[in-house]
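quick one, 269 residues, struct below
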Amino acid sequence: MIFFMSKFFSFVLCAFLMALASISQGAEIFGGYSNGCIRGASELTPGPLFQVQHWGPQRDFGHPVLIDYINDLAKRASQHKLPPLLIGDLSKPYGGPFGGGSAHGSHNIGLDADISFDFASPGKSAYELTHPKDVYIVDPKGNPTGNFTNARATLIYLAANDSRVQRIFVAPGIKRALCRMYERDGYSTAWLHKIRPWYGHRGHMHVRLFCPKDSPYCKAQAEAPEGDGCGAELDSWFLPPKPVKPGTKPKPKPSKVLPEQCAAVLRGQ
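---
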């Protein structure tokens, strides 16, 4: 009996320690998409179904949920006969702002990923991956270019149809082209609810995932407005800007203060 109890308690202790180790190795998010950090991010490893672009140093890290999402998307894209994907910026190893004059205002917590509208077919060379170029599917006025193909529309559809996705940013012209395409062909536009217009996204889509349930300090973004967003909301992006009164000074943006936990996280602690 004593031997049995000893073995039992050893088993319980071992299971407890394994669970504790698992918890300690889990990713933790502090703050929001544009003002936060992440501990325990994973590096995205390229494979046969996608390659990773390098727009800057060490921008290919993300929460394990994001890494799984990208691998799953690449598999589903392959099943739909799409070429291998090109993945752009994720986050830095500990998150936080990119700095160095980067145009990114988010990508702070390992839940954002840029997915190129170019494909890795033929495969890109090491030089091409470190000197990436955009493939624009709409022009500066928002009109579809010759690169706006069914394959790229399918990629956006597949990217959005995942319960982990909170929203996807694309150029306003891309959203308009998708609305027209699906309305013209009589398909449901409900999935376009997640597709949000945002300037600067003509050559890639910016996928954003929901905060994981095991990250209580992750600051969630408000839900997107109801509906497919194909009506007046979308039209407003193509209206001329409102005139500014002479002498009006732009309001200064409030300075961001990272969550207190990020001081240690960004030091690798």
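Residues 1-24 have pLDDT under 50 and may be disordered.
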